Model the fold of this input.
Amino acid sequence: MSTEAVERRLYNALWWAKVQSAGPLEVDPDTPAVAGLTRAAAPDGSAVWLVPTLPSGAGHGVLDELDAPPVAVEQPNETARILAICVACCWTDRSAPAWPGSRGTLAQIRSVYAGMRGRPEQSSDLTLIIGSLRRLHATHWLLWDDKAGEVRLGPRVITWTAADLSTLRDLCRHLPEPPPPVLSTQAVAEPVSETALPDATARSADEEEADD
Done:
């Protein structure tokens, strides 16, 4: 085996060890590709995520070894419900890939959650929702911003197959429609340069000449 091949195998092994220890990793876009790790580019291009490409039908042993459980195991039903709601809120263009999707808000999640329950929101709902969001963030299914109350789909959704996405599209059709998001940061209109404004003095002179 050539020296180059040995170095490549060591490089791949190092990154796999890191993924096994920490789960999907956010790295610089210039980081060379790693065999078996899918690259998920951040929406602004500032980073990429390295996500394990799991073999079809991988059992719980393989998933646990990669720190990649199918869904966070604490309160699995509630957590899976919140993940489905976030998919509905963040995957707005369902003809496109799920990653990176768009930002959703806690207000949207609470609205859809109450609609799924078929009752007004209760005081305990928010505790359940926040707990599920944090678990899904810890396992990289979601990117949850506690401070802003905003969420994106996490890098692990890039591993969803065409069959998975088809199932999720059908699921989203049966969920209550989320209200429009009100994000913490909205695009600010570009200020108009003073040089682009009509010159009042020049306009007055032109008008006087026209009167003459």
Notes: The domain at 76-173 is CATH 1.10.10.10 (Arc Repressor Mutant, subunit A). Confidence is low (pLDDT under 50) at residues 187-198, 200-204.
